[in-house]
Write a structure and sequence with these properties.
This protein has 394 residues and is an alpha/beta fold. The chain has a domain of 246 residues: Rossmann fold (3-Layer(aba) Sandwich). An 8-stranded mixed β-sheet has the order 1-2-4-3-5-6-9-10, sandwiched between helices. Helix 5 links the parallel strand 3 and strand 4.
Length: 394
């Protein structure tokens, strides 16, 4: 049976349960008459405890009904195309001390990119700025009904190349580094293989969904390969893939953890401001869902998940076959060992396919988002990325 007193002791103690603990944790076989008598709380103690519970309830209500202040690192918009924007973050290190090669961040097309800049003191963008990088971020924006026919072809060979040309012009450089995360890593990989001579010196892939050979792996692949799953019916119905459905699918992979454990953990730490504000920022990002362009979603399911065209060498983007051997940039491939969205097996095979001479596979304990936005990111993932990139950015 659930032992509430153990849990309350772990969070610093709850007077209400401690007063009545003998009734809740009576030893096996011990009768109510033989159990030690509980101490009845004094009125002022009970009132103080009820006040504390009320304050915690107010905090919980605030967290559930408001948005946290996120993406606060100063930046400027230097380019736009349709819904997409290219941001340049204001440098904090003098020009003479900065790395010469700028860094472009490319996130997924069905999530907001500000997970890379969650809050002051816990922001990958802020961290890289402080370590001397000139940082740019490509925000794909939220597709509307008029964007339902957009494909990976458009993202990889129209939007991304144009943003990169603007970056190079703005920074006054011929070379750049690029970090792609999740589907941003997939788009970055396609671009890097099709345009190997555009100045990309360093490529960092984070939890990259590239290889779908193993149809029994975790994540979405079992669902998408089920005969009853019809991507065409979904897109015919909605036009674009609703962000709410994508969010539900991700959470349904770990339903107890996402729908129960997440909130129990919050309540256990409701009087810890550091934990509370961290949860608030992450929840703001998680619940800020955007749709995915319908044609791109259909392409993801059919050409990648089902047919594995990229790894098989049969992927054609705007009439060009994507040959991974043409990807020659220095490569750091970061894999989350506990990733249930992109299992490690979907990221590993690319190491043998690319033409890069300088390449590293870096595995780190953590999940799909946690390795970059979790509490341990600034101790493990970020420093490794910085050390690898710094050696190749001057």
């Amino acid at each position: 049976m659930f032992n509430r007193t153990e849990r309350e002791d772990r969070k610093g103690g709850c007077l209400f349960f401690k007063f009545f603990a003998p009734f809740a944790v009576r030893k096996s076989g011990e009768s109510a008459m033989s159990a030690s008598e509980p101490r009845i709380p004094a009125p002022n103690e009970l009132y103080a405890e009820l006040e504390r519970i009320a304050e915690n309830a107010k905090t919980l209500n605030r967290l559930m009904t408001t948005k946290a202040k996120i993406a606060q690192t100063p930046k400027e918009t230097i380019w736009t195309l349709n819904k997409a924007k290219l941001y340049h973050y204001i440098p904090v290190v003098p020009a003479e001390k900065r790395h010469k090669i700028p860094l472009l961040l490319v996130f997924a097309i069905m999530n907001r990119p500000y997970v890379l800049d969650l809050r002051p003191g816990h922001s990958f963008v802020e961290y890289m700025l402080n370590h001397g990088y000139d940082v740019y971020l490509l925000d794909w924006g939220a597709p509307g009904p008029e964007d339902k026919n957009m494909k990976f072809d458009d993202y990889a060979l129209e939007y991304l190349p144009r943003a990169i040309r603007k970056l190079k012009s703005h920074a006054g450089v011929a070379e750049f580094s690029m970090l792609g995360w999740c589907l941003g890593a997939l788009i970055s990989t396609i671009y890097s293989a099709l345009r190997p001579d555009d100045g990309l010196r360093n490529l960092i892939l984070l939890t990259a969904p590239l290889d779908f050979s193993d149809k029994t792996a975790g994540g979405f692949i079992r669902w998408t390969n089920d005969e009853s799953f019809s991507v065409d019916k979904i897109i015919q119905t909605f036009g674009n893939m609703p962000g709410e459905l994508i969010d539900y699918g991700a959470k349904a992979l770990k339903p107890v953890e996402n729908y129960v454990g997440n909130y129990l953990n919050l309540w256990d730490n409701i009087d810890n401001p550091k934990v509370v504000e961290s949860w608030h920022a992450m929840n703001t990002w998680v619940t800020d869902n955007i749709d995915m362009a319908g044609a791109a979603y259909r392409q993801l399911i059919n050409e990648f998940y089902k047919e594995n065209r990229l790894i098989n060498g049969t992927l054609v983007i705007r009439g060009e076959t994507v040959n991974l051997r043409n990807l020659r940039a220095n490569l750091l491939n970061v894999i989350a060992e506990k990733d249930h969205i992109t299992p490690p097996c979907q990221s590993e095979a690319v190491m043998e396919k690319v033409g890069s001479q300088d390449k590293e596979l870096f595995k780190i304990h953590g999940g799909h988002i946690g390795i970059m936005a979790g509490s341990g990111a600034e101790k493990h993932t970020w420093p490794h990325i910085d050390a690898w990139l710094a050696a190749r950015s001057d």
